[in-house]
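Format notes (please read before filing issues)

Several people have asked whether sequences and structure tokens are stored in separate files. They are not. Every record keeps both together, in the order shown below: the sequence lines, then the token lines. Line labels are part of the format and must not be stripped during preprocessing.
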Amino acid sequence: MENKRVLISGASIAGLTSAYWLNNNGFEVTIVEKAKEIRGGGYPIDVRGSAINISKMMGIYDSLKTKSLDNMKIKFLDRKNNLVGQLPDTSMKEYDDIEIPRGYLTNELYKLVKEENINILYGDSIKSVIQNTTFASVEFESGNKEIYDLIIGADGIHS
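Then the structure lines:
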């Protein structure tokens, strides 16, 4: 299925990661994102288990590690908010797990996607899809129409 055209709806963690790997495996990838730009913010993200290996394969693990929220320690502060001591969570020392701001992870993934020259359509979304046995015809809210071999929905829990 190489050189097939793929549309991914959503430019957050799942959409950007999917775009990166599909592109690196010979697919022509376009992302459509309803927002006008990449969004940061949101709850912190735990990167653990297979996500550690994937981030290492993508070459972003070391960068993510520098932004660790370091929530694996108990900190003792005095009345003026000065650090007077801390207890590391020794149970986590054997693991590479990290917790990072969601926006930082999204930005690191976005940089990878931009380096690969993956097309992102900002401020647009899918209006309709007509599918047959070999392709899907997509009409966007902007009125543009394109044909894709595969459509992936990665547009989040609130979409």
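For reference, the curators noted about this record: Helices lie at 13-24, 50-58, 61-66, 102-115. The first strand starts at residue 5 and ends at 9.
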